[in-house]
């Protein structure tokens, strides 16, 4: 095991971000003679690192040997007995800029069940002066999403009480499961009558995303959440929806959750539910998180009273989008038209950009994003760290240009689209005199 080098104080201040690794038994150790690298073999530099933020976790990447760079510029992998690669998982509100470096061990040395790593946002780490630093940038205020806003005991009490009050509502029962078993913030908010609340409606989907979090086709892969298995009634949706819209300050009611397929497949149900809810209240904002595959359905929902639409996507280029989403019967053209349709109907539009360093920030991908966002007039880009094992994702993607870097990509969007808002979360809305939805703040 490479021990922490006991050096005289003078040497303690480190000249460069150095490799940190973890033994198979979980001890983190420093290799101060090795410069930390990212997945593409680029040295991590201080300018791209921030101290490990509160709420972040670090985890070993079993079967992946930690890799660093010697002063002579030689790439060195740690023996598996000394050090697996170490990854950080960022708290919400932070955007990853680099992926960890590692070297896969041969198949016969691969620990059991480690061929493909679980769906997490693997983020590069380094040591500086004895502290852990991550390759990330803060991109939004996470106050409404941090674990300490969701007391487990209080959540249980609130869920039990609400289920006693409304025993027959399957939507409520489904999201009770999400709140208690997944600590899902938007499901939990339904039981706290605050912020953004979730309503899932669709068991099916017209895409087959490589990293789908609610349904994985490949036996060897486990989706982090179970997908909804029933079709709610309009009445069940309206009961939960109106309660949230009228009780929660600055309420957002969102269809399209991680525990379901594609909500637009149930647009007729949503159209009736939105009309019924808007007949009872004008409060809050009704939002849909969607793959935006059906512009005509979007037009109907906007006419019914939909206030905002968030299109989840990974690329503005059809080849890259199709490689990841594996869409059935739609593509980037329909997504573009859905955003334009919603905007023209006065709804607030956003992109949920599944972000993987080296993908959206590749020169050609970034240029396509600028054109797409300008053409659709999208109001907000929500940056979402894509939770996936690099070995599962990268072989499936088409070639792309050299990477600008995530920070440079964000700067480019700000520079070329000055009115574009960039963050991580949907925003509470209000309706202007002209009926156009605008952020409350
Ligand atoms: S669009 Fe959503 S539900 Fe459908 S496959 Fe992709 S991640 Fe899964």
Question: How would you explain this protein's 3D organization?
Answer:
The protein starts with 17 loop residues before the first strand and ends with a strand. By secondary structure, the chain is α/β, with parallel strands linked by helices. A seven-stranded parallel sheet has the order 12-13-14-15-16-17-18. Helix content is 28%, strand content 22%. It folds into two domains: 136 residues, no CATH class; 297 residues, TIM Barrel, CATH 3.20.20.70. It is globular. The structure holds iron/sulfur cluster. The site of iron/sulfur cluster has 10 residues, from loops.
Supply the key terms.
single chain; 441 residues; alpha/beta; TIM Barrel; 2 domains; 7-stranded parallel sheet; 11 helices; globular; binds iron/sulfur cluster
Strand order of the largest sheet: 12-13-14-15-16-17-18
Structural class: alpha/beta
CATH topology of the largest domain: TIM Barrel
Q: For this structure, what is the CATH class of the largest domain?
A: Alpha Beta
Number of helices: 11
Query: How many structural domains are formed by the residues?
Result: 2
Approximately how much helix is present in the residues?
A: 25-40%
Q: What is the number of E strands?
A: 20
CATH architecture of the largest domain: Alpha-Beta Barrel
Low-pLDDT residue spans: 1-11
Which percent band covers the strand fraction?
15-25%
Question: How far apart lie the N and C ends?
Answer: 53 Å
Sheet of most strands: 7 strands, parallel
- Shape label: globular
Bound molecules: iron/sulfur cluster
């Amino acid at each position: 095991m490479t021990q922490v080098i006991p050096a005289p104080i003078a040497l303690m201040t480190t000249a460069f971000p150095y490799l940190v690794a973890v033994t198979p038994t979980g001890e983190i150790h420093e290799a101060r003679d090795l410069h930390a690298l990212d997945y593409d073999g680029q040295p991590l530099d201080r300018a791209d690192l921030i101290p490990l933020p509160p709420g972040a976790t670090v985890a070993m990447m079993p079967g992946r040997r930690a890799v660093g760079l010697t002063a002579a510029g030689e790439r060195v992998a740690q023996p598996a007995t000394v050090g697996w690669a170490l990854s950080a998982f960022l708290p919400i509100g932070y955007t990853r800029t680099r992926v960890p470096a590692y070297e896969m061990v041969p198949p016969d040395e691969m620990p059991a069940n480690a061929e493909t790593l679980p769906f997490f946002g693997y983020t590069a780490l380094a040591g500086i002066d004895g502290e852990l630093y991550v390759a990330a940038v803060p991109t939004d205020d996470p106050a409404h999403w941090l674990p300490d806003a969701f007391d487990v005991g209080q959540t249980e009490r609130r869920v039990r009480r609400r289920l006693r009050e409304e025993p027959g509502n399957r939507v409520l029962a489904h999201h009770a499961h999400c709140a208690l078993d997944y600590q899902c913030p938007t499901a939990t908010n339904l039981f706290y009558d605050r912020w953004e609340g979730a309503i899932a409606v669709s068991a099916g989907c017209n895409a087959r995303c490589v990293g789908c979090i609610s349904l994985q086709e490949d036996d060897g892969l486990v989706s982090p959440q179970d997908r909804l298995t029933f079709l709610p009634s309009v009445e069940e949706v309206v009961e939960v929806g109106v309660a949230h819209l009228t009780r929660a300050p600055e309420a957002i009611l969102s269809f399209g959750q991680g525990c379901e397929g594609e909500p637009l497949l149930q647009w007729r149900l949503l159209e009736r539910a939105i009309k019924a809810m808007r007949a009872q209240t004008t409060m809050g904002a009704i939002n849909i998180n969607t793959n935006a595959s059906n512009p005509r359905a979007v037009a109907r929902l906007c006419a019914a009273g939909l206030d905002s639409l968030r299109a989840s996507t990974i690329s503005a280029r059809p080849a890259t989008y199709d490689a990841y989403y594996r869409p059935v019967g739609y593509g980037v053209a329909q997504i573009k038209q859905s955003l334009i349709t919603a905007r023209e109907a006065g709804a607030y539009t956003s992109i949920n950009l599944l972000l993987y360093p080296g993908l959206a920030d590749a020169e050609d991908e970034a240029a396509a994003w600028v054109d797409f966002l300008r053409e659709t007039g999208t109001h907000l880009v929500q940056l979402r760290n894509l939770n996936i094992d690099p070995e599962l994702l990268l072989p499936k993607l088409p070639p792309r240009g050299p990477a600008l870097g995530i920070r440079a990509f964000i700067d480019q969007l700000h520079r070329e689209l000055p009115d574009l808002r960039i963050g991580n979360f949907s925003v509470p809305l209000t309706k202007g005199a002209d009926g156009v939805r605008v952020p409350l703040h």
